[in-house]
Amino acid sequence: MTQELTSPSPAPQAAGPDRGQGWWRDAVIYQVYVRSFADSDGDGIGDLRGVRERLPHLKDLGVDAVWLTPFYSSPQADGGYDVADYRAVDPLFGDLQDADELIRAAHALDLRVIVDVVPNHTSDRHPWFQDPDLARQRYVFRAGKGENGELPPNDWESVFGGPAWTRTDRGDWYLHLFAPEQPDLDWERPEVHEEFAAILRFWLDLGVDGFRVDVAHGMVKAPGLPDIGRGEQARLIGSQVLPFFDQDGVHAIHRAWRRLLDGYGEASGREVIGVAEAWAPSSERLALYVRPDELHQAFNFQFLSTPWDAGALRAVIDSSLAATVAVGAPTTWVLSNHDVVRHTTRLGGGLARARAATLLMLALPGSVYLYQGEELGLPEVTDLPPEVRQDPAFFRGRVGADGQHGDGCSGASGQDGFRDGCRVPLPWSGEQPPYGFGPGGSWLPQPADWGRLSVAAQTGDPASTLELYRGALELRRRLPGLGDGEMAWQSAPEGVLAFRRPGVLCTVNTQAREAEIPLPGELLLASAAVTTGDGTAVLPGDSCSWWAI
């Protein structure tokens, strides 16, 4: 049931430092995966009150905004991305009053708040889907193939593995591009458009500053729902246009939402934004989501998936900037999130390479997204036992002792199912689990050696990754040449990237060995110790340095 505030709060004042129009163009936005951030009540699961109590950490870190993953009423079949009620807070995370207090506390600290909206699908427990007749007016249902409709309507596969269709007791089939508990909405129905416009207004009235649109590329399917003609379709996402993703029709939805956001902003005196989580096969296709009349930002997954190689990095930076400049939008940069292996592990080279990649990212023009725990240098947890895992893709692709997949499908067709490794709860203090995460345990086990990585252990240590992030964000905020603006490549030795921002030069050594360059200027910040003398600077392998010029 949709919740209501017992004592509705007044509309909050505009949050964040006064940086003029377009605060989002160079904002540093911190992703909070709510269930793993901080637990206030001892049940081992992070909650909204826990987030509110830890907001000073984000203020001290130096970010501009907080993005909260779904905390709505949900059976939690996919970590809250299966929403049963978009206007209620799940009891696991608190209630609507907790959400209101969190938003107001963030604004008091000059932090803006962005929340997830999940428009491609709902939970199968949503009231619309629970009504069999109404479900067929709001979701994608089709008759099956075969003599008696016993075969799925087409060959589409779930992102999580297995068929993207489930048959009902009426004999027809419903589409779920993710888990069977997440039926896809039918965006050809005007009632779906009207409902989501009302949902956006509900949260805007509560004071949020924007929305991250989950699967922003997925709401519209190709006419006729054509077959793809091959398996392992999840591997094609982000490399080619598929009949269920990145269809041109999604842009009409985003244009309508931009009009809603702009109208609300004009009426309230606040600048509120929309952010697309969109997998597109090229930077040019991705840029379509951030045209002047569409959303404000889109995640740059092309950058996230680029290997640690000077040529590859330069190419993706150039293509990303060219595509967004062409439509007048800022580029966004991200290295980690709740769906991918943490970059401390993913890039290879360990913490040194991860620190260098972070300084590179923070020196680029545009906006940056940080994922909780990366400021601590947390690695991916790769040894979680099967009995504690909760990623639905793991279970849909899991092979049992009999050699069969748990649901009879091929796990190779979907995600690898190991997203739990980047979702292990944060270490805040202490030498033993749960490291200050909460008064009880933690929903996923934390490694025995994470005490040295806690916020408390790293605070004040000038060599720590946490202090590197704090220093970089303070410089980024203070130096006008960083953030949104121009950039120019400079000549550099093989394996080294060098680019100029107004007043700042960034050098990145992507090799494992040292590289010598002419001394650029005064060293501002480096991910590893730089040796200077006799007009030269020696850059350590896998390092990034910022220089005042």
UniProtKB/TrEMBL annotation:
<protein>
    <submittedName>
        <fullName>Glycoside hydrolase family 13 protein</fullName>
    </submittedName>
</protein>
<dbReference type="InterPro" id="IPR045857">
    <property type="entry name" value="O16G_dom_2"/>
</dbReference>
<dbReference type="InterPro" id="IPR006047">
    <property type="entry name" value="GH13_cat_dom"/>
</dbReference>
<feature type="domain" description="Glycosyl hydrolase family 13 catalytic">
    <location>
        <begin position="31"/>
        <end position="402"/>
    </location>
</feature>
<dbReference type="GO" id="GO:0016787">
    <property type="term" value="F:hydrolase activity"/>
</dbReference>
<dbReference type="InterPro" id="IPR017853">
    <property type="entry name" value="GH"/>
</dbReference>
<comment type="similarity">
    <text>Belongs to the glycosyl hydrolase 13 family.</text>
</comment>
<keyword id="KW-0378">Hydrolase</keyword>
<dbReference type="Pfam" id="PF00128">
    <property type="entry name" value="Alpha-amylase"/>
</dbReference>
